[in-house]
Specification:
The protein is an alpha/beta fold. The chain has one domain (3-281): TIM Barrel. Helix content is 40%, strand content 13%. Strand 2, helix 2 (42-50) and strand 3 form a beta-alpha-beta unit. The protein starts with a strand and ends in a 6-residue tail after the last strand.
Length: 283
């Protein structure tokens, strides 16, 4: 039988996102989540996680479109120097990737900031099961390498495999041709990912599903993915929440889709014909 991790990103973003994550976990529709270290509702998310000790909680490492844990003076290559207060990350993923590939971003600073984010969760009492990254920036080796070093330094034993397999792409009917092309192109980095992760001794899954469907993940898509899922260990990446006033104040394109995902997970996951686990149970 296949194993499935159902992981909600953006834990801590808003009270509505926190509420959705905990409700879905308690209704057996979600097994794992990743917490953002500098999110507005971090403290509430920590308190809720402590009330649900069998929920796997990882660190959603943010290097773009957010704020750092470390002072900007310690990680200058990660900071958007065009921002008014010069204390935030680059707002756009495209800008981050361009600067990353041009060697303008320090791997040592990525490691330091990722380590600080993980340690903030651990110091708050969270047993961090794994790490992943906001907008999947660890798809790129120059982020992956320092992220693995941060995980090892913090005793974190698992990482998201962000690459979506062909069977999952083919089972996602409403992802859009342009986004499907982008997801396929990023798979050029998958061999390096496998080599680096294997060498580090960090655990991971056979791949992520639902990445192509980000923003369009509905019940039919989840049913299609579950029906097509082969043997192995997979992670369903999702972003459930409540589309309330607080969410609409956030810098995110995922608004109404979070309500759709919440309902879809509740409809499809509790009866899924697979073994539901979290990252702490990979071994």
């Amino acid at each position: 039988m296949s194993r499935l991790i159902v992981n909600a990103d953006d834990f801590g973003l808003t009270q509505g996102v926190n509420q959705a994550v905990i409700e879905l976990f308690r209704d057996h529709a979600l097994t794992s989540t990743t917490l953002m270290a500098t999110a507005d509702n971090f403290d509430e998310a920590v308190a809720l996680a402590k009330q649900s000790p069998s929920l796997g909680v990882g660190c959603h490492v943010v290097l773009v479109d957010g704020m750092p844990v470390l002072p900007s003076s310690e990680i200058p290559s990660l900071i958007d120097i065009s921002a008014p207060n010069k204390s935030v990350f680059r707002a756009k993923l495209s800008t981050f990737v361009t600067d990353l590939l041009r060697g303008r971003i320090s791997e040592a600073e990525i490691e330091a900031e990722a380590t600080a984010q993980v340690k903030k969760l651990q110091q708050a009492g969270i047993a961090v099961t794994h790490i992943d990254t906001h907008k999947h920036t660890h798809t790129f080796p120059r982020v992956l390498r320092p992220l693995l070093q941060a995980a090892l330094a913090c005793g974190v034993k698992a990482i998201r495999n962000p690459f979506e397999p062909n069977w999952s792409l083919n089972a996602t009917a409403n992802g859009g041709h342009v986004r499907k092309m982008q997801v396929r192109l990023l798979r050029s980095q998958s061999a390096t990912f496998s080599q680096e992760v294997t060498s580090s001794g960090i655990l991971t899954t056979d791949g992520a599903i639902g990445v192509l469907a980000t923003g369009t993940l509905d019940a039919q898509t989840i049913e299609n993915l579950l029906a097509a899922m082969p043997d192995g260990t997979w992670e369903l990446v999702c972003h459930p929440g409540y589309n309330d006033a607080a969410l609409q104040q956030q810098n995110t394109r995922l608004l109404a889709s979070r309500d759709v995902e919440r309902a879809a997970l509740l409809e499809t996951i509790p009866g899924a014909n697979c073994d539901l686990i979290h990252f702490g149970q990979l071994a």
